[in-house]
Amino acid sequence: MGKKAFTTHEAAEYCNVSPATIIRWIESGLLKSTKTAGGHRRIPKEELIRFWKEINSDKDDENLRVLVIDDERFIVDFFKESIEKIDPNIKVQGAYSGFEAGELVHLFKPHIVFLDLVMKGIDGFQVCKRLKESPETNGIKIVAITGYPSKHNIDKIKEYGAVEVLEKPIKMIDIRRILIDLLSPTQLWK
Fold first, then answer.
1. pLDDT digits (tens, 9 = 90+) for 93-127
2. Hey, which of 122, 128, 149, 181 has its CA 20 to 30 A from 28?
């Protein structure tokens, strides 16, 4: 999912500047890029995110917030530990019940929710659908996590608004990939 590198025009669009500004940043050494065989510049996704965070750090020091909703504590703990290793500045909370999930969505105001689809007392599909239908929460990026990755479940949760589905068992590299894929420079730290 997602691009690994951006053209100067794409980077300019993400950063809301002109392509000439992107080229100046590259030539001055502020932004790293590579060149294709045809001489065209490409900016790696991770570099663009790093640079965008750096130039905007004085504008907004609010950290990214991630909520993990799963009734299995070891899953929530794994996500917390993994995300802390990936970036200790990301704030992570866990919810183990429908009540906690509802409360934290409104108090913690997460940017990303990792949502288990099948839990005791919680219908993950309906949680996703309601979050995406509400004007207050429809901007949250929802990543479904499931031990039951049938085509029906994947299609249904994506129809309800999930941007990605992770199959259990989850690996830290999957979490890292998701965080990088979901954080386009214009969406960082909103």
1. 999 888 889 888 988 889 999 999 999 888 999 99
2. 181
